[in-house]
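pasting for ref
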Amino acid sequence: MKSHAIKLGLIITACAALMVGCSGAQEGGGQTPPKLEPLSALGDGEGELNLVAWAGYAEDGSNDPTADWVTPFEKETGCQVNVKLGNTSDEMVQLMRTGQYDGVSASGDATLRLIYAGDVAPVNTSLVPNYETITGFLKDRPWNSVDGQMYGIPHGWGANLLMYNVDVVRDAPNSWAAVFTDAGKYKGRVTAYDSPIYIADAALYLSKTKPELGIEDPYSLTSEQLDAAVELLKAQRENVSEYWSDYTKEVQAFESGTSVIGTTWQVIANTIGADNRVQVNTVLPKEGSTGWSDTWMVAAKAAHPNCMYKWMNWITSPEVNAEVAEYFGEAPAQTKACEFTTDKAFCDIYHATDEKFASQIRYWTTPQKKCVDGKGDDCTTYDEWVDKWQQIKG
């Protein structure tokens, strides 16, 4: 991991707002996705494929000669790949709405927006042979399916963990209380993720500590529940040194000591640990955590659907999915990928096939007026979360 520290920093800096949306189009009001049919049979490739992707997901060797899974795909299929990097989920949504792209590596706060707007089509998983051995806990989930119909092929996933400097935070916290109700112990040295979707972290904590609020799903919040989460985050704000969305900033903050505790990704902790400057530990708190699961989705009006299906099968093949996961720093979705990782401990570190670990994660899902947990039609939308996040940060 040490050899990839700078490279990963560049990757995730480009992905800095992973899962972050902006307040562009009005989102989250759709009740039923438009009736669209998936591809019925796989034909010959059309010779071209236009993708919107996170940096690090569709590498062709130009950034790192050792990272190239696009060129072999082109040689095997004849589909020439053109990649447009999406720096935020909101940007990806807007790019897909231009109709110029065949597919997208959508994150959980973008997927439902694309589905309900009719921007992406349902997927015929029988045309993607590698889907069969995709991790079961990533299939047919609220962020990538509707009424049992998959709208994409899972790619990779990870948890948002609690990280702390072991030399400063000596009590080995195992609760998110450390960065919420007890954050005053580390006033001015707490860090938090810079995104409206971070509201879900506060909601998850409140669901366990204040059951009287009735929060069952951190992405299905009524106005009152949202306000409670916002108040908790406003209180936390008094103790926050900085909000991070840039991967390198959290690394620098912990290494300099300006931050000693906060939410993180495992790859960040690994990078800090590899430099041996600061000793940090990560924990999945007792309340559980939020996390991400990315999905390759097909444009509803894809000009090259056969090439897109071939790509989805390629990118989730064991060898390629392993390569992408190690390069990017996340758990692969393909169960057979663990046989091909360079670091044989990689899948254990990232809990790739650990269903018990994964069951504690509430994966990012776009808040909708129609509650994503199916409990009603009075939930707050993502646009409302964006407005509230702006109020929190001031």
